[in-house]
């Protein structure tokens, strides 16, 4: 059963996390309410844009959250993943399935009307992901802003800096550590898979096609019933555009059900399943599966760290006029 602390204790902890963020993020020149005078409506515009898009398409929140991860892990949180063109991050096959770009572009267009040349695409990406979590039932996170947009975007930087769904625990720990994120952050941020969907190819390594043209599952860590369901949804020769929900039971709700799935051996990716089968992370998985409030509190801390990875501030980078292209 979910443990529920008093409203005071939960609020007190959230305020403490915000205070700690203010202290820790100051060195990076990110501050809360960065746009309070230059563009007071900035965060409201982003929030309303995300809400409107999500009401029309419930898959939007998951896409925005994934977009943030792919941005921050490559070149830092600088909107480099938004840049279009040959050889950019966005052109790499690993990023071909990313979505949510139109939501960011819509928010940017509005902000350029109200506050031209003021709000960075990098901040919009971070705020949109933050709002996506809250709008689907997740915790409220007050993130500092002031990020600048990067000018460099290279496809060659993508693969060495993002988690592959077949990664081992050791590989994930090494990558997260290189971004200043701990093992606890790794387990917590993996909870992003409580919303969103994946193409069949993302977990095809868990199955093998037999001589009769049918799939059999070769990953014995998977629950048999769940594996059978996945094979029906993604048979050999299936349309590559088919997607499967990360969490089939509460697909569009940000909750702790993801961790319950791991306990039941129903993690969609190998990189999900290993969180419970590895002794280094299994205890935290169990704790989060039993305590949604605890997961939410940890999410606030880890999300603040994620959105502060290698940010550009001050005179670094630029404020793009149009998110898919660098300024002339």
Instruction: Determine the structural class based on helices, strands and strand pairing.
Output: mainly alpha
Indicate the CATH architecture of one domain.
Orthogonal Bundle
Major β-sheet strand ordering: 1-4
The whole-angstrom Rg is: 20 Å
Number of helices: 12
C-alpha termini separation: 56 Å
- Proportion in β-strands: under 5%
Poorly predicted runs = 1-27
What do the pLDDT scores average to? 90
> How many strands?
4
Helix content bin = 40-55%
Return the CATH class of one domain.
Mainly Alpha
- Global shape: globular
CATH-derived topology of one domain: Peroxidase, domain 1
Cofactor: Ca(2+); heme b
GO cellular component, one term: extracellular region
EC number: 1.11.1.7
Keywords: Calcium, Disulfide bond, Heme, Hydrogen peroxide, Iron, Metal-binding, Oxidoreductase, Peroxidase, Secreted, Signal
Structural features, described:
With 328 residues, the chain is mainly alpha-helical. The protein has a domain of 201 residues: Peroxidase, domain 1 (Orthogonal Bundle), CATH 1.10.520. It is built from twelve helices and four strands, in the order H-H-H-H-H-H-H-E-E-E-H-E-H-H-H-H. The strands form two sheets. The protein has a two-stranded antiparallel sheet with strand order 1-4. The longest helix is centred in the first third of the chain and has 19 residues. The radius of gyration is 20 Å and the shape is globular. The chain starts with 6 loop residues before the first helix and ends in a 22-residue tail after the last helix. The N terminus is likely disordered.
């Amino acid at each position: 059963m979910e443990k529920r602390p008093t409203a005071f204790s939960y609020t007190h902890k959230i305020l403490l996390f915000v205070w700690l963020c203010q202290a820790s993020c100051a060195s990076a020149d990110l501050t809360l309410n960065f746009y309070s005078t230059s563009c007071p409506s900035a965060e409201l515009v982003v929030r309303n844009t995300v809400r409107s898009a999500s009401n029309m398409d419930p898959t939007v929140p998951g896409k925005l959250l994934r977009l943030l991860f792919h941005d921050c892990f490559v070149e830092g949180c600088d909107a480099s993943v938004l840049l279009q063109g040959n050889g950019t991050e966005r052109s790499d096959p690993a990023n071909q399935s990313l979505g949510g770009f139109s939501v960011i572009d819509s928010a940017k267009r509005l902000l350029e009307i109200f506050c031209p040349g003021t709000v960075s695409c990098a901040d919009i990406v971070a705020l949109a992901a933050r709002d996506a979590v809250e709008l689907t039932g997740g915790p409220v996170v007050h993130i500092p802003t002031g990020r600048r947009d990067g000018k460099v975007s290279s496809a060659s930087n993508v693969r060495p800096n993002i988690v592959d769904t077949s990664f081992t625990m050791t590989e994930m720990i090494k990558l997260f550590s290189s971004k200043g994120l701990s093992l606890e952050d790794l387990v917590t941020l993996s909870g992003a898979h409580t919303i969103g969907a994946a193409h069949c190819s993302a977990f095809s390594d868990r199955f093998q096609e037999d001589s009769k043209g049918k799939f059999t599952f070769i990953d014995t860590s998977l629950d048999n019933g769940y594996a059978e369901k996945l094979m029906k949804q993604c048979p050999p020769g299936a349309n590559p555009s088919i997607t499967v929900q990360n969490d089939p039971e509460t697909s569009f709700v940000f909750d702790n059900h993801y961790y319950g799935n791991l306990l039941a051996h129903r993690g969609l990716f190998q990189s999900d399943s290993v969180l419970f089968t590895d002794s280094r992370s299994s205890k935290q998985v169990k704790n989060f599966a039993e305590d949604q409030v605890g997961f939410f509190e940890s999410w606030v801390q880890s999300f603040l760290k994620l959105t502060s990875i290698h940010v550009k501030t001050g005179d670094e980078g630029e404020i793009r006029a149009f998110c898919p292209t660098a300024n002339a």
